[in-house]
Write a structure and sequence with these properties.
The protein has 312 residues and is α+β, with helices and mostly antiparallel strands. The chain has 2 domains: 108 residues, Ubiquitin Conjugating Enzyme (Roll); 119 residues, Impact, N-terminal domain (Ribosomal Protein S5, domain 2), CATH 3.30.230.30. The chain is built from 9 helices and 10 strands. Strands 5, 6, 7, 8, 9 and 10 form a 6-stranded antiparallel β-sheet that branches. A 4-stranded antiparallel β-sheet has the order 1-2-3-4. A hairpin with an 8-residue loop joins β2 and β3. α2 runs antiparallel to α3, α7 runs parallel beside α8 and α7 runs antiparallel to α9. It is globular. 35% of the residues are buried. One of its GO terms (cellular component) is cytoplasm. This is Impact RWD domain protein.
Length: 312
């Protein structure tokens, strides 16, 4: 009987995936068919305000008969109570349809949520954990002059209009136990550019499908001799704060780093934080924001403390 049940589960989910692929076309993406990892980019269908979310799904072997899908909702604008409300609605749908294929209902529930959200006020601005908050981002000054070795690559940020999209660099990925981490970097001089960079990255289907897109940025306000800075975990608890801490230790300025993680189905424990920070530091060094030379003893000890597994 168990073999028959397993065969039914296999038939059910493969038929469901085939149907979803036909319905949603390019919006539907197969991440790892063998591991049953899929994602779909969902939008509200409007130009203004245009809201998108990525629903990533892992199907257990017992789905749909006895186990629900494992899911992650990726959306830079989705936070706090709104994220909890959407998650609760998906879980309620599963309970109401337990034992049945649920993915189509979930996708349309997310789309319905996006439409309702777009009818409300504009998505809230990114919350800032600045050393000193700056209320008017149009008054953020140009960045200071960098060292000669990095000057050429950073001159762009000194003359850029904050209405323009800064250039985005993509670094080398790190893979460990089927999880992949890839860093992205861009110069920033205002929170408005931070939002533009996130929107641009989420236009990339692969990046949008990441389980987590963790980011942190620091903007130096020269006239106030302080930093405007913020970070986001995107579901990877404490990862954003650790990434921001790394930027502070390296004393980088006017830069944003995003690290995308694609979960491979195996828990990494504290190693995931090590990979996130190593990715970030590598691209900062490659782009000239941080030195690759040996740090001072006090700085080295702080950096090792940040990465040490026993402290994660």
């Amino acid at each position: 009987m168990q073999r028959v049940s397993s065969a039914c589960c296999l038939c059910d989910w493969t038929d469901e995936i085939e149907a979803l692929s036909s319905i949603y076309g390019e919006e539907w993406c197969v991440i790892d068919e063998a591991a049953r990892i899929f994602c779909i980019k969902i939008c509200n269908g409007l130009e203004k305000p245009k809201l998108t979310a990525c629903l990533q799904i892992i199907l257990p072997h017992e789905y749909p008969s006895t186990s629900p899908p494992i899911y992650q909702i990726n959306a830079a604008w989705l936070r706090g109570s709104e994220r909890a409300k959407l998650a609760n609605s998906l879980e309620d749908l599963y309970v109401e349809n337990m034992g049945e294929s649920i993915l189509y209902l979930w996708v349309e529930k997310v789309r319905e949520f996006l439409v309702e959200r777009s009818q409300m006020d504009q998505p809230e601005k990114v919350n800032m954990t600045a050393e000193e908050d700056v209320e008017d981002d149009t008054q953020v000054p140009d960045i200071r002059t960098f060292s000669d070795s990095a000057e050429e690559s950073h001159l762009y940020a000194e003359r850029v209009n904050d209405e323009e999209l800064p250039p985005i660099k993509h670094g080398e990925s790190i893979t460990d136990r089927r999880s992949t981490f890839q860093p992205h970097l861009a110069p920033v001089v205002s929170p408005r550019q931070v939002k533009m960079i996130l929107e641009k990255l989420y236009e990339n289907k692969k990046i949008a499908s990441a389980t987590h897109n963790i980011y942190a940025y620091r903007i130096y306000c020269e006239d106030k001799h302080s930093f405007l800075q913020d970070c986001e975990d995107d579901g990877e608890t404490a990862a954003g704060g650790r990434l921001l801490h790394l930027l502070q230790i390296l004393d980088v300025r006017n830069v944003m780093v995003v690290v995308s993680r694609w979960y491979g189905g195996i828990l990494l424990g504290p190693d995931r934080f090590k990979h996130i920070n190593n990715c970030a530091r590598n691209i900062l060094v490659e782009e000239g924001y941080a030195a690759s030379t040996v740090r001072r003893p006090s700085e080295e000890s702080r950096f090792q403390l940040l990465l040490r597994p026993s402290n994660l």
